[in-house]
Protein 1
Amino acid sequence: MKAKELQELLDFIAKSGLNKVNIETEEFKISVQRDPNTKHVTTIAAPMAHAPAPAAPAPAAAPVAAPATAATETPAGNYKPLKAPMIGTFYRSSGPDSPAFVQVGDMVEKGQVICIIEAMKLFNEIEAEESGRIVKALVDNATPVEYDQPLFLIE
């Protein structure tokens, strides 16, 4: 794996918000672990015994954006979170020039598409699990999301 590819992989992992990733191939083994209480990613990369060393050293720590506080705060009331069924990249519309599937204040029906999550180049339509009104969008467009992360609050 080239140094540029390694840096791109580390940047993707940092943006995804994952706390731990292990990747092992015949050529190398990478373990990335982030302490949820800090804003840095600690990286340990070790080439396998029969593989050549990487051309450039991997950075010891890469900064990670702090998670949005709105995603962790849940306002009081009769709100139910709509959670991500998978990890991937969250999109509020089907394309950059398309309008968002739903806006705050919109009424949604059970089964209505309210967003898309891209996972491994597949775009998965996410449907409302129940009918109600969108009270709050908890995730910004084109942001990595984790499994079971709240995306919207529905009243």
Note: The helical segments are 3-16.
Protein 2
Amino acid sequence: MKHSSTRQTRRGRGPAHRIGRSLAFVLPVVLVLSGTLAVTRVDWSGDPSDSVLAASEASSSKASSARAPHEVLRDRLLTELQEEDPGVALTHLQQAVNERPSLADHCATIARALGRAAVKAYGPTRAQSYARPVCDTAFASGVLAAHS
């Protein structure tokens, strides 16, 4: 009798049970792989021009035309760096942070962006000559990152 009851429970596990077991194994693997692929497609350098998501970011930024103050400041300082020199841009960055302390959270990020742009415009040696202790050593680390 035990033998027949065991057979009935096994028969009760039909194709739905096999599909469920297969999904229980395959689904976590698919989720991990898709998450890994999503993370690798994100541009972690902070340069939106290299981003895979740049098109979607551009369309969303057009929809909300109001940009964050630190983004406006960064773009203005990058333009100043090209038109004048990194020293002028760093001076204006320090003045902006002194006038608006809320920008201090973004100071290092902006200074690193200025450092990378200075290397592109002036080369690593000349760019490093403009380094000063604005936002600690973020400008110098931007120069180093762009040169490496």
Note: The helical segments are 2-12, 15-41, 54-63, 69-83, 86-99, 104-122, 124-129, 138-147.
